[in-house]
Design a protein that fits this description.
Blueprint: E1 6-7, E2 16-17, H1 22-29, E3 31-32, E4 35-36, H2 46-50, E5 55-60, H3 66-79, E6 85-90, H4 93-110, H5 112-119, E7 125-126, E8 130-132, E9 138-143, E10 158-162, H6 169-176, E11 186-191, H7 199-206, E12 210-215, E13 222-223, E14 250-253, E15 266-270, H8 276-279, H9 282-294, H10 297-305, H11 318-323, H12 337-340, E16 345-351, E17 362-371, E18 376-387, H13 394-403, E19 408-412, H14 417-426, E20 432-439, E21 445-448, E22 453-457, H15 458-470, E23 474-476, H16 479-490, E24 493-497, E25 505-509, H17 517-532
Parallel strand pairs: 5-11, 5-15, 6-9, 6-10, 10-11, 16-19, 18-23, 19-20, 20-22
Antiparallel strand pairs: 1-2, 3-4, 7-8, 8-9, 12-13, 12-14, 16-17, 17-18, 21-22, 24-25
Helix pairs in contact: 3-4, 4-5, 13-14
Length: about 550
């Protein structure tokens, strides 16, 4: 965003060129709850308004005015520059609706300057999920968690992703493709940390990690506020116990770029304890002390301090995976009496590469021998390809599907849908190639006749796949060959999302820099086994 902002409207009002910062302009033109918008008690948000970084990360506790700041900055993005399409996505429909009506809407409708020059008029759209301003800037609002299909195909110059701790990293990558044609794309990521494996924590680790530092007036030492700074009446110095004044703080990068490199993201850690609304009001600080005494450590860390706690859990251990291996069965490159005796079909699963950081998202192929009468599915071949575009591996995969006489091959619909279409042209007629789309739908598995694909609930599929491992229905070739695939499976954890907004939803997640491609390759192949065995009853936990 250009700090030499141009204020004006499309009705010929004289344009005024000014050196005001974006935060200054916001305080002059925005109104909140009938009063001029002010950052007097929110000095830490000035830099967030004024940041010109390609990526901004807001890692915040609850109730720190994070969402109001996002709404204010979004209004500035779309009013300071005409013809600017901006996409906002939250992790749920309810949260997007709330943002549109209770945060973004009031700024647009109750700020006289904004309303009269950008919202009022016939050529304006002001719906919950779509807003077109008089300067032809556009705000598209949507939501996703497990799959970005709802937003795929939209175009924008900037994207705001909120509550990213509840989003699937691969879905975020798909959503960000909406900005692939933008000349200078900008992203803002915001949320409240829960566990170490969330996309929010990954983005935070890649950022410059700015903390609000406060100099003690007593001993002169600098403090990064945390639990040790929580005193009986407010923030105190860790070294001498003297009261700290949060208004005198400033942002300091804990992870500055090195060797002249540009920062990946401009990151801001915003705990409750640095906010004047909490640390400078006696009643609010008393509430915070009560939380310190009564909240479990995990909840206090997440909601008050805005930091992660734990990595989630999994019912699958390395020992369990070792027991699923058949030590007399090597991973062989073709069908033999040793790996196919008595089997009725072969099935395959593919998780296509792309959508991760370099080296952490690879194409993986899994091939099973299917024994329908025994409900037994044995992984007899697997290959982890190097990272890169899926098209690089299609011919080799087609050759292996033919060599193993695969009847049904299921692969991910997302970024790999084009690859699936190409693969279909290279395989024999008896090999059926079927895309699978992960979703958060209530039905475990449905057939989409129009798109000729399966739509499956991601959590339910992984649950049932693990259930079949635990019950002995899924077996694998020997451990020495299978171990690289097993490491991907051990990277995944079950976590709860959305619990702070009502009933939580259990999902499976992994660190964006810890791959889980082999797991999904095996899940897709296992689904193909279940289809061939006519065993399509899935348990919903």
């Amino acid at each position: 965003m250009n700090n030499h902002a141009i204020l004006g409207n499309l009705q010929g009002m004289k344009q005024v060129r000014t050196n005001l910062r974006v935060s200054d302009i916001a305080q002059r033109v925005l109104t909140l709850m009938g009063q001029p918008y002010s950052l007097k008690d929110y000095p830490m948000f000035e830099d967030i308004y004024n940041s010109t970084a390609t990526r901004i990360v807001m890692r915040a506790g609850r109730q720190v005015s994070k969402t109001v700041t996002e709404a204010g900055r979004l209004v500035m993005d779309t009013t300071l520059k005409p013809y600017t399409p901006v996409i906002y996505c939250n992790a749920s429909a309810n949260q997007t609706h709330s943002f549109s009506t209770s945060k973004l809407g009031p700024f647009l409708l109750q700020s006289p300057y904004i309303y009269n020059n950008f919202v009022k008029g016939k050529d304006v759209t002001n719906n919950v999920y779509h807003k077109m301003l008089r300067n032809y800037s556009e705000i598209i609002l949507s939501y996703f968690s497990e799959s970005a299909d709802r937003v795929r195909g939209r175009s924008g110059n900037s994207m705001y992703l909120d509550e990213v701790q509840d989003m699937l990293w691969e879905a975020m990558i798909d959503a960000q493709e909406c900005l692939s044609a933008a000349p200078e794309p900008h992203f803002l990521y915001a949320g409240t940390s829960k566990s170490e494996i969330t996309p929010l924590e990954y983005l935070w680790r890649q950022s410059n990690q700015k903390a609000w530092v406060i100099k003690c007036d007593g001993c002169g030492s600098w403090n990064i506020p945390d639990r040790k700074c929580i005193g009986k009446t407010g923030l105190v110095c860790k070294k001498c116990g003297h009261a700290l004044n949060t208004y005198t703080g400033h942002w300091h990068a804990l992870n500055p770029p090195k060797d002249g490199k540009e920062i990946y993201a401009d990151g801001y850690w915003i705990p409750q304890i640095i906010m004047p609304m909490h640390c400078c009001r006696e009643s609010k600080w008393a509430d915070l002390l009560t939380k310190l005494e009564t909240y479990p450590d995990i909840k206090f860390d997440n909601e008050v301090l805005g930091i992660p706690n734990g990595e989630g859990e999994s019912p699958i251990t390395e020992e369990i995976l070792q027991k699923a291996c058949i030590e007399t069965l090597p991973c062989l490159p073709k069908l033999t009496e040793q790996n196919y005796s008595g089997a009725k079909f072969t099935a395959a699963g593919i998780d296509w590469g792309g959508g991760g950081v370099a080296g952490t998202s690879r194409t993986v192929l899994s091939i099973y021998a299917v024994y329908p009468e025994e409900n037994q599915y044995v992984k007899i071949f697997g290959k982890i390809y190097d990272d890169g575009e899926p098209s690089r591996h299609i011919q080799d995969i087609a050759r292996r599907l033919s060599a193993f006489h695969v009847s049904l091959c299921c692969g991910d619909h997302g970024g790999g849908n084009f690859a699936m279409s190409q693969l279909k042209e290279l395989t024999p007629p008896y090999t059926r190639i079927v895309p699978v789309m992960y979703s958060a739908a209530s039905a475990p598995c449905t057939w989409d006749e129009r798109a000729q694909r399966y739509v499956v609930n991601r959590t339910v599929m992984i649950d049932n796949f693990f259930g079949d491992i635990l019950s002995g229905h899924v077996r694998c070739f020997r451990w020495s060959d299978f171990r690289p695939f097993a490491m991907d499976i051990l990277n995944i954890r079950q976590v709860l999302i959305g619990e702070e907004h009502g009933k939580g939803q259990r999902v499976w997640r992994h660190k964006p820099d810890a791959p889980d491609d082999s797991l999904h390759s095996m899940v897709f192949g296992w689904l193909a086994c279940r289809v061939l065995s006519l065993r399509m009853n899935f348990t919903i936990s």
